[in-house]
Every structure is written in structure tokens, then in C-alpha cells.
Amino acid sequence: FYFRNKHRPFLLFVSLLHVHTPLITTEKFQGRSRHGLYGDNVEEMDWMVGKWLLDVIDNEGLKNTTFIYFASDHGGSLEAHRGNAQLGGWNGIYKGGKGMGGWEGGIHVPGIVRWPGVLPEGTVINELTSLMDIFPTVVHLAGGAVPQDRVIDGRSLLPLLRGTVQHSGHEFMFHYCGAFLHAVRWHQKDSGTIWKAHYATPVFQPEASGACFGRGICPCFGDGVTHHDPPLLFDLSQDPSEANPLSADTEPL
């Protein structure tokens, strides 16, 4: 692919099976990580990205002309386990995990961007963006224009990555579980405050587990969710773990 397109623009999308159950890990990487089979799977994915993608791009002299974006489509799976051993990922301070359309652990993932000579090295951006932003970003890079006959939810990442703007173009973001709206966030303009309202949240099994071990994955509707009226409200700028829902008593404003 690279050799055929070395002298013309190309778009390569790679969706890895790795870091997803079943954790298919080749013999070469089994036992490499102290974090078990999941860690082995991460190590093999890391090797694949480096060896098959980054090294080839560098060796072909395409390093400074290729925009690379590495990200995940959801947070780590908490329910994946064998016996007492957890096989899935770890979502840090964020509540919940994969299959949960509202909680931060299901939707809040890191992204890594590389474009030497164009984007500054070692920059950390804490603004929230969306995978929907890939489309307008790539269209912009290719010299095209996004369709004008419909609403495009994505925003080009380039102003944020280049530092010409300090805040994400998303004032509101809507978080669905399947076809059901579970939560919405509001990033107040010219402010660091981020509000998040939950209209429905999964019923954890067991209750304090933060996951749905009884079902294998949290459902999006029916008896597997709790509806909130009024919605659960959090100030993510002060409470990123979504541990303390606000009320009119605690937050009159």
C-alpha cells in the first residue's frame, strides 16, 4: 500500500483486533507483561503499530508529510474476566467502562497525534474532542470542503493541535448508548467549567462494582438502566470521577 501511494496522498485506516476480548496474543508476546494476557495484548499492539506503520512511514521518507492519529473507540472493558482475574482494561479515575454511554470511563479515552515538523512535539491538550472530528480534519488536510447540505457534528482538530485556539469547538456533546441518549455535557464558552447531565445510567451488578458482571456488559435500556428526572448533574471540572452529583441544596445556582 505505502509503496503504491508513496508519491500521492493516501488515507489508511487500521482497526486492530487487539486489546479486545478474546485477547488473541501470539506466542512471541505471551508472558511479556506483568499485567497478564491483557498487558501482553497491549505490548503486541504497540509493536505492530511501531513496526508495521510508523517504521514503514519513516523508512519511506513520509514522516514529515503524514498526519497520524491513534485513539480508541471506547474505554476499557471492565466485565471481561476469567474466574477472579480481570482481563479487561483500566479507566483510571473515570467511572464505568465500555458499553456505558454516559459515564466517563466508557467514553473518555486518550488520543495520540504525530506530525513532525508541523505539530509541536510533546504538547498535551486537555480539551475534549470527538472521533467525529476525524472526518472534517482529513477533509481539511486534503484540501476539500465538508458537505454544506447537512449538519456536520465534527470539528477540525487542526486549530487545536496547532495552538491557534485554546478550546475545543464542541460546546455541547451528546453521549448515546446504542440509540438511547444517556448523557450530555456542556463546556461553558470562555470558561473551564464543564457540566454533565445523566438522563439514564446502567444498573451495576453488584451495585458497588462499577460494572455489570451479572450481564457481561451493561445494557442501554429496559430494566438494565435507571432513568433520572431531574437528571444527575456533575461539575466535571471539579469532579472528573463523577462521584458527587449536585443538587439545588448543594449548588443553588
UniProtKB/TrEMBL annotation:
Claim: Magnesium is one of the keywords in the record: no
Keywords: Calcium, Hydrolase, Metal-binding, Signal
Cited SUPFAM superfamilies: Alkaline phosphatase-like
Protein's name in the database: ARSE Arylsulfatase
Similarity-based family: Belongs to the sulfatase family.
Any one Gene Ontology cellular component term annotated for this protein: endoplasmic reticulum
Gene this protein is translated from: Arse
Cofactor: Ca(2+)
Signal peptide start and end residues: 1-26
Statement: the UniProt record of this protein carries the keyword Repressor: no
One Pfam family matching this protein: Sulfatase_C
Annotated Sulfatase N-terminal domain residues: 5-143
GO molecular function, one term: arylsulfatase activity
